[in-house]
Amino acid sequence: MNLDPKIYWILFSLALVVAALWEMARPWRGVSLQLVRRWRNHAVLLFGSTAILALIFRGSAALVAVAAQNNRFGLLKVTALPLPARIVLGILLLDLFGYAMHRLYHAVPVLWRVHQVHHSDAEVDLSTGIRHHPFENLITHAFTLGAIVLLAPPAAAVVVLQALGVCQIFFSHANANMPRRTERLLRLIFVTPEMHRIHHSDEMRDQNANLGELFACWDRLFGTYLDASVAGVDGMRIGMKGCEGAESAGIAFMLAQPFRSAATEPQSIPEPVPARTSGD
Predict the structure, then answer these.
(1) I need a surface site. Which of 87, 163, 189, 251 has the fewest CB within 10 A?
(2) Does residue 24 lie within any of the structural domains?
(3) How many CB atoms lie within 10 A of CB 35?
(4) Number of domains composing the chain
(5) Is residue 156 part of a domain?
(6) Long-range pairs for 4-13 at CB < 8 Å and ≥24 separation?
(7) How far apart are CA 143 and CA 222, in angstroms?
(8) CA nearest 68: which of 175, 154, 129?
(9) Whole-structure pTM value
């Protein structure tokens, strides 16, 4: 069982179009003159990374999951749970792994250097979701394949998570608003745009919070949930301090950023704090 590349890119395109229409209908903030340049260069990063991954990793994550079924020591193979339960558990555990990897990107200096490319976007919209340095995509993909081998989840769990993930990258980064009550209910389960854009604030305390990828429960469980930016709703600025200029949208800037001597060092993940409320 595998998510066919054609189906993946069809789903990718549909999710992109839906998110773009949503951004136009209910924008969170106005767009800048950098919009076309940002989208073009973020697309260059995406397709460059995709080509590199295809050359290095011949098999897809789902195919690795199929192969891992022959692994006698896979954590999800030694359970007596029925297949549907193992699929659900596989999705949850792989998403938990994504949360753990995200924490590492913010806590380990060498990983933070490559992850800064994602955070140095001076705006946040659906294209921010594909703004990752090729090194970050390589590292994430390699460790994800390792997690699949270790867990040996059903291939269906990997396929479902792939499908949800391709929608989530655009949904969680969308420069869009949703009705307040709807958003508050939805974020009980999923990472919403309002919840995730706090993570893209230029305040380090905000950046070390709301690290979930798909499900919002991990931040609450591990004490990294933040209900509102420390700068407040009106005072929140997107991006990284020192990367506010137009150069942050340049492809040369993004590719070279991990190697700059002025790259900032990460701060430790903060201790749990009471959830802030932004009011209804």
Answers:
(1) 189
(2) no
(3) 14
(4) 1
(5) yes
(6) 8/162, 8/166, 11/163, 11/166, 11/167, 12/166
(7) 21
(8) 154
(9) 0.88
For residue 224, count other CB atoms closer than 10 A to its CB: 23
CA dihedral of residues 166, 171, 175, 180 (deg, nearest 10): -170
Per-residue pLDDT, 268: 47
How many Cα atoms occupy the beta-carbon half-sphere of 70 within 13 Å?
Answer: 4
Whole-number Å distance between alpha carbons of 15 and 73: 37
Does residue 97 lie within any of the structural domains? yes
Predicted pLDDT of residue 62? 64
Contact 105, 112 (CB under 8 A): yes
Domain hosting 249: range is: 32-259
Instruction: Tell me, yes or no, whether 231 lies in a domain.
Output: yes
3-state secondary structure the chain: CCCCHHHHHHHHHHHHHHHHHHHHHCECCCCCCCHHHHHHHHHHHHHHHHHHHHHHCCCCHHHHHHHHCCCCCCCCCCCCCCHHHHHHHHHHHHHHHHHHHHHHHHHCHHHHHHHHHHHCCCCCCHHHHHCCCHHHHHHHHHHHHHHHHHHCCCHHHHHHHHHHHHHHHHHHHCCECCCHHHHHHHCCCECCHHHHHHHCECCHHHHCCCCCCCECHHHHHHCCCCCCCCCCCCCCCECCCCCCCHHHHCHHHHHHHHHCCCCCCCCCCCCCCCCCCCCC
Tokens coding 8: 């993946």
CB 130 within 8 A of CB 42: yes
Query: Is there a contact between 114 and 45 (Cβ–Cβ < 8 Å)?
Result: no
Q: How far is 197 from 191, CA to CA, in rounded Å?
A: 10
pLDDT digits (tens, 9 = 90+) for 179-232: 999 999 999 999 999 999 999 999 999 999 999 999 999 999 999 999 999 888
